[in-house]
Q: What sequence folds into this?
């Protein structure tokens, strides 16, 4: 198989790439080539694998690559929520136009690629004057409150229509917020959900922009990658519909996250988080779904992480064993 | 006020233009200028009104016009369902790209235009393996089964996001199938719902591509124009949400339509309709919503046509009194 991962140099995309390379196959077929398209080159460990090629540059410049014929595509590349709110045009270009180019190019290749589109729980929000259903389900009417969520939703429907037309074999999976992410904070409004765990573990003080009662649905990187691969490998019948499905997530409050941090890493680590309200972030996050269900994903054998302690422990283990995690990521644990 | 109607030379757009000109005002303010943008020039009767200017050409060439500043916009221009199914790229250009240009240009004008986007009941359809709710409501999860319905839905969400950002004051109204339309059949799969009334009344034999049990939700042109103007004039609070609302429609079967035709025009007229199955049309129409409710539109004072006889009578009256109806439109009545 020849596989494309857009956004494959990013944290999640690279982890997905490593998992696919380690498995060596997808849906029972050997992966001969793994193509990574991203603004940036693929991480060094991926480039050492002879199956990997890396194409750095904006998606809008990669039409010829996308036309070259793929058996499978994981489309993860996206401008994130904070970026899209700050720059409306950038959001439309990076999300809508880039995905249009990808879908047009796959169709032009003449090969019907199986494609997983990484959508987001951010498609959900309360419509003006109406409460948001809690939990949100696979059949909740989306009413996104961000441009990012709007783009994801529009593209879910475009992917479904291209699938109906037989241009691709597409399926959209709504990712929950992924935590704990390594590295620096990014432009996503949800960035702090990782930051309040990552920074204290590294021995760095950090701020939390919302209060302890704010809750959200999270998934570990490992569980998220498992979800993407499972959705890719599932038959169309098993997917159970053309529309997007929710990936499973763990519903947890900021207070519970910090209690888990204290349990796993001790009170000194937890005390590195102080609260400093940020209205911009709070207003974005406050309009997101709280709890969610994932019946169709459950039927594919996917389940939420067991608890938030397990998510923190996965991060600590990743820091010790995986590429892409800074060597000082756990300095706060031994401090 | 300076008002723009895209698709304003079409049947519905021109009728909307005439209604606005006759009223002389919208939302309590005098209409000084009515700009009609359409592939074709505005009909002659509209061009005689000094308030009207007509700009013929593809929407994608009209960016400068759209940037010139409007108090209100009715966005009706669209490729129709049959065209979009036949030419996927044309559909995306005519619907998605053209509307993007319109919205970008309005935003660039610096004026916050009030905008009514003419969406469609075609956003609804059954997801794979699931039945379509009957009736569909304002809060039914859309699962369009046509590219046309997909584009309308994607644009509802883009209009909502542009409104959330304060670029426009947008609202989307889902039109029911409009009948009875004058003139020739068009590329819409729903075209026959008008044809089986219009052609017999003109004394012309015609075919019905589906059987008498097929039902659909229809609205007269007069009621549809009333709906568009009411949605335009409503306050944001009265609209009751950012998401699209259904316009009211009359749920009627082909059998009931033909019975009404016989009642209004006699058995000889009805007998000009014979049945000839068309799988392409039947498969599109069979996936559309049957009945629908319109609670939010009802709250604005909008209601469905009383019955199908009234819709036929409106058509007969229009043929006798309105511009744009051919002089031989009722030749079948007196034959």
A:
């Amino acid at each position: 198989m020849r596989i494309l991962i857009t956004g494959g140099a990013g944290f999640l995309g690279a982890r997905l790439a490593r998992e696919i390379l380690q498995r060596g196959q997808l849906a029972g077929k050997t992966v001969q080539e793994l193509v990574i398209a991203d603004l940036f080159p693929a991480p060094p460990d991926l480039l050492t694998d002879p199956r990997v090629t890396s194409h750095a540059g904006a998606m809008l410049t990669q039409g010829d690559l996308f036309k070259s014929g793929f058996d499978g595509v994981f489309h993860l590349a996206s401008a994130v929520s904070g970026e899209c709110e700050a720059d409306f045009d950038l959001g439309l270009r990076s999300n809508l136009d880039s995905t249009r180019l990808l879908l047009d190019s796959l169709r032009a290749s003449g090969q019907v690629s199986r494609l997983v589109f990484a959508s987001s729980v951010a498609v959900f929000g309360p419509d003006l004057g109406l409460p948001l259903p809690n939990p949100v389900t696979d059949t909740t009417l989306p009413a996104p409150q961000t441009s990012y969520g709007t783009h994801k939703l529009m593209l879910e429907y475009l992917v479904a229509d291209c699938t109906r037309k037989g241009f691709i074999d597409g399926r959209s999976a709504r990712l929950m917020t992924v935590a704990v992410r390594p590295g620096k904070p990014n432009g996503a409004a949800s960035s702090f959900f990782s930051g309040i765990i990552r920074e204290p573990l590294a021995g760095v003080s950090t701020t939390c922009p919302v209060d302890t009662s704010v809750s959200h649905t999270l998934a570990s990187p490992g569980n998220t990658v498992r979800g993407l691969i499972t959705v890719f490998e599932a038959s169309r019948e098993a997917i159970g519909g053309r529309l997007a499905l929710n990936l499973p997530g763990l519903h947890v409050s900021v207070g519970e996250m910090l209690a888990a941090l204290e349990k796993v890493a001790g009170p000194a680590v937890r005390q590195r988080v102080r609260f400093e309200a940020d209205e911009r972030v709070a207003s974005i996050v406050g309009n997101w779904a709280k709890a969610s269900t994932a019946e169709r994903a459950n039927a594919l054998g996917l389940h939420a992480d067991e608890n938030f302690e397990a998510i923190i422990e996965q991060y600590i283990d990743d820091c010790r064993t995986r590429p892409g995690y800074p060597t000082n990521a756990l300095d706060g644990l031994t401090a």
